[in-house]
Specification:
This protein has 448 residues and is an all-alpha fold. It has a single domain, classed as MFS general substrate transporter like domains (Growth Hormone, Chain: A), CATH 1.20.1250. Helices cover 76% and strands 1% of the residues. The protein contains 18 helices and 2 strands. It has helices spanning 22-35, 41-55, 59-74, 77-108, 110-117, 124-160, 165-193, 196-218, 252-256, 259-280, 282-288, 293-298, 300-318, 323-342, 348-376, 381-410, 414-430, 438-447, and strands at residues 238-239, 242-243. It has a two-stranded antiparallel ribbon. The longest helix has 37 residues, at 124-160. 53% of the residues are buried. The chain crosses the membrane at residues 20-41, 61-79, 91-109, 124-145, 166-187, 199-219, 261-284, 296-318, 325-344, 350-372, 384-403, 415-432. InterPro entries: MFS, MFS_dom, MFS_trans_sf, Proton-linked_MCT. This is MFS transporter.
Length: 448
Amino acid sequence: MEIRERGNNFPFKPDKIPFFYGWVVLFAATIGVLASAPGQTMGVSTFTDYLIEHVKISRNQISSAYMFGTIASSFMLTWAGRQYDKYGARWTAMAAALILAVTLFLLSQSDRIIRLFVKDTDSVVYTGVAIAVMLLLFFLLRFSGQGVLTMVSRNMLMKWFISRRGFVNGISSVFIALGFSIAPLTFDGLIQNTSWRLAWIIMGAGIGIGFLVFAYVFFRDNPEDMEMVPDGEKYANRRKHIIIKAFKQFTLTEARKTLPFWLFSLPLAFYSLYITGFTFHLVSIFETAGMDREKALAIFIPISFLSVGISLVGGWISDRIRLKYLLYFVLTGELIALLSLAYLNDGIFYYGFILGHGMVSGLFNVLMTVTWPRFYGRKHLGSITGFVMSLIVFASALAPVLYSLSFTKLGSYRYAFLGLAAIILVILILSYKGNNPQDKFEMDDQVE
């Protein structure tokens, strides 16, 4: 028995419940992604100003610590993906949750931890120690939250479905989009009603106790390990004109040699970059456009309604059309969002960003989850998605400093937004080549 299979029938046997266990996995995976919110940028952004005030370092310095901590975490995610392939969803998710919970507790005491080493906040040594401590904590936060916990939850769901993969992902994406959209306001409300320290402690307790138990009870890896099949019934490799089940199981090395791998992974990475920079400097970006903190935080509400509708339709339709058509839609949304941010005001560009970002956020989870098992199979899904997550996390790491430098050195956030828009335009031009690599292997199979 492999390690990932141990305890699959405890505290209950998944094949004994009166309906297909994949629907339980849908619920569990959605909770898993939502539990990663404190490790996402929107979870950090509401605490940024409090960290600057209490840790006593500048915005550029806190951004640098965030960047290098996130970059360091990105280098570990391919390794984490291989551990997922080895140990399975349950044990990997529990380990990630434990690391995330401990990190949140440490962040709540970060300024006090720094002063254990250096008390003089005006000294150069203090600044160096402060940046080093924050870098380490951001590394743990991003690795466990944005990286591993998110990756494991999404992969688990995709292993339990094939024919309905897009449909169930669309359902999950609705609740994830809603949860992430209200997270900044929720976290801010928690801070206002308690304190920034206690808010992180409460989150840490919820994840370290509540979610840890939840993951142990409900998370399961391959349905085949429990003598079950994805979807609860067998399907052929193709449904109508769309390949839904891989003919060839690609390794990570083989996947990276295909052009579609980069055409799909890079837009996801650049989305992560622009939205990370936006949420990290959210209040500042809106202040420079003449709008206050309340207006900035409120923008996520209309975006959530738009992204919910797009998630449902996009998830359903992804089972029926080539994914490159959804890629066109995402890249167009990114262009609209970036150009709107470049010229942000209280009028048309405010609503332009809502439209563009709603388009992208609605389909991000669809492309992030459905693409890799359909294009490259399930056998090496952990290592492949681990590498994709490393690209996404690495890109997100660059955002806070990139935006900060654009603002402090060039005098405006606009230059960062326009530069990213130019890159997205190039990818959009090339995206017509984003076909499923499995097409070739189906033809080879027919010849044989």
